[in-house]
Specification:
The complex is a heterodimer of chains A (118) and B (115). Chain A has 118 residues and is mostly beta strands. Helices cover 0% and strands 53% of the residues of chain A. The termini of chain A are far apart. The chains are: A mainly beta (118), B mainly beta (115).
Chain lengths: 118, 115
Amino acid sequence: AQSVSQHNHHVILSEAASLELGCNYSYGGTVNLFWYVQYPGQHLQLLLKYFSGDPLVKGIKGFEAEFIKSKFSFNLRKPSVQWSDTAEYFCAVNAGPYSGAGSYQLTFGKGTKLSVIP
Amino acid sequence: DSGVTQTPKHLITATGQRVTLRCSPRSGDLSVYWYQQSLDQGLQFLIQYYNGEERAKGNILERFSAQQFPDLHSELNLSSLELGDSALYFCASSLFVSGSKETQYFGPGTRLLVL
């Protein structure tokens, strides 16, 4: 079974600082990778996703992530954070087999809380 | 707004009781997933339905069950509730076309508090 590790439980940054949140997964086959964000009191929103192709994917709100297959990593980055980025960030993976009998359920990391200080 | 709706938003009940959570997927989505978010376990997959049929099971207790109706809405039934069942329950939907690169869209969740 696949698993997802997010290295940082809580990250505190000042506005305009750069952000990188780590995510590693354990699965040797084909994977689809996602980052979701959960603002306080709200539901999960998709930030970005990687299926195939260019390993550098761009998402909403200036976020991007890089898939490094050799490191089983999918780290999330943002060059300059804003107070409004304060939220919890979840890395998720679904893995094959991608067939009619398969399921696409997501395995989530434990999440990283980001606090941005104005 | 993801287009996935869940009711109720909040639910407070007592131990031993039974509750039903409801989810309506996005228009056109055939697959519904249920997840539980708790402080100690994080986000965990419970069960998936596709076009009315159970597709996959995750860490779902025997006291919990779900179904998907012909109009594609889904209900998650939680019975003999225990304090530890207090959590946020999310529903997600997707198109689920075999072999495709699908994306799940999450609803606002139902916050369950068992007293």
